[in-house]
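A reminder before we start the practical. When you read a complex entry, don't treat the lines as separate problems. The point of joint prediction is that each chain is placed relative to the others, so the output describes one connected object in space. Small molecules and nucleic acid strands, if listed, are placed in the same frame. In the example below there are two entries. Take a minute to note the order of the lines before looking further.
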Amino acid sequence: MDDATERPPFTLHDIEQAAERIAPFAVRTPLLDNPALNERVGRRVLIKPELFQRMGSFKFRGAYNALASLPQVVRWRGVVAFSSGNHAQGVAAAARLFGVPAVIVMPADAPAAKIEATRALGAEIRPYDRWSEDREAIGRALSEERGATLIPPFDDLAVMAGQGTVGLEMAADAAALGVPLGDVLVPCSGGGLAAGTATAIKAKSPNTRVHAVEPEGFDDTARSLEAGHLCSNDPSARSICDALMVAQPGALTFAVNRHVLSDGLVVSDVDVMDAIAFAARTLKLVVEPGGAVGLAALLSGRLPVGDGAVGLVLSGGNIDPQILQAAFAR
Amino acid sequence: MDDATERPPFTLHDIEQAAERIAPFAVRTPLLDNPALNERVGRRVLIKPELFQRMGSFKFRGAYNALASLPQVVRWRGVVAFSSGNHAQGVAAAARLFGVPAVIVMPADAPAAKIEATRALGAEIRPYDRWSEDREAIGRALSEERGATLIPPFDDLAVMAGQGTVGLEMAADAAALGVPLGDVLVPCSGGGLAAGTATAIKAKSPNTRVHAVEPEGFDDTARSLEAGHLCSNDPSARSICDALMVAQPGALTFAVNRHVLSDGLVVSDVDVMDAIAFAARTLKLVVEPGGAVGLAALLSGRLPVGDGAVGLVLSGGNIDPQILQAAFAR
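Here is the predicted structure of the whole assembly.
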């Protein structure tokens, strides 16, 4: 790995501060144990169900921390976000709690449930075409027009710190149970959840291996970690994991992730559908495709053999009913 | 209320002993908070998700405690149970942990998932016709033939004590949060979960009102509480709540419940389907019809206005995929 990228000033302390800021409004999700999953995997699995988070995914944590970190006079002018859905809902929910306006730039083909949920929070929606328009340019233009602050979906230290509270809570709850974490599986798109969670886990439990998990066609972080520099995805790639479709890792997130992640694991759409079905039938949890990639890696045997418990982040549950029904019918 | 029935010798101590016995194998389910549910109801709701229990429902608690309470020489001869499904799985799972044989008398029309799960645990299945055969007589005959012990689904002090650990954990976790429980909603069939849970809750928090919740046509406990004596259901009644279809309350359970329950609430099949859909979409939980009656009572406004938080027992998640899909399609 070359050292061209400087490691950003991002530490456990940032995540601990975020934990204090989000505590009044974020759901403190538990760690769940499932005997049937433990038997199937042959190791104890501690499930972090972020589908129970406010708005149904971990994204509220980073969004709320980013808004809370702004000076009040800046926050009052409002916020703008571009997002495939869950970050949109996180920013809209945080903006509503602060009583400030939010404009959300969303792909026109995002799940209807996510678009409606975002609108219901009082946010203004600006739809765009995922394959022909540049969402970042639209977001920047809106930000300049209105004097509103852009809240990036991942490549931002306050957002990363907020997402890192997932790892901080997991480390604390596993320690309280007296269970050493051998491996942690984190869904990965731009890498904010992975960077925050891995930073917290490695600070609290340095020998734990943290693995990013990505869908086939969007394994940019896995390849970037191997190559030691940023790699992009083929623009023609498609996946059922609508929440995990980015062009390449963030510059900040990757500069952190290269130091704290062990590697990246890659799962197929079929693995993901099987994981969604297993979650509904056996775990009794409704998990969205992007939220289920860690479970998919575990059930399909992609996690290398190891010891200690497995920390499994199920990052969200905002699934379109049709996809859940298709998975359940398998 | 007349005093013809003597109150059975059943106290918090029995439930605390059960908690110690089941601790090595039962899942210690958490209390969950959901901001969207709190907003919808206008009160804080603390969800006790027993769908995360071993085998997907609270029934393992009572079954394991009943087996653990038998003398070893008796337990070795095996156990027999008659059950609409979840009790069957609980007894089969407990018998497997103890390494003793189990015969389960199950309705031939029970959900296929429940029959298969029970068989997969190594239990022998004896199917019967729910409307023409007497499951208790079949169970007793099998018990006499084989010298095996009958584990009743509800009308048994050890079973009631095991189910009561649901209430014991709820009271402890609510107290740890510093949240006073105004009301507790418990699904009710024969009344074992209600009797155990209400006994624990009232011992720890005497001013909390505990409500049994039943489906229309099977409101025997609600009517029995009002009448002050055991009332039966119309044998022609039907419900989607396959886990809550009994003829009348148990003698032991009712003798406890008349002292510890405030009243019984009654919900329709439509209320239950709406609750299953809400649970999947918003709570991200897969709840079976009988497990969702408390949520149905809450969402349909059947809980009288009160103060303090609401403790909500979601008692199981073993739903047939077709029913979940029908609910989700609403």
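Discuss with your neighbour: The beta strands of chain B are 32-33, 45-49, 79-82, 102-107, 124-128, 149-150, 181-187, 209-215, 263-267, 309-314. What might explain this?
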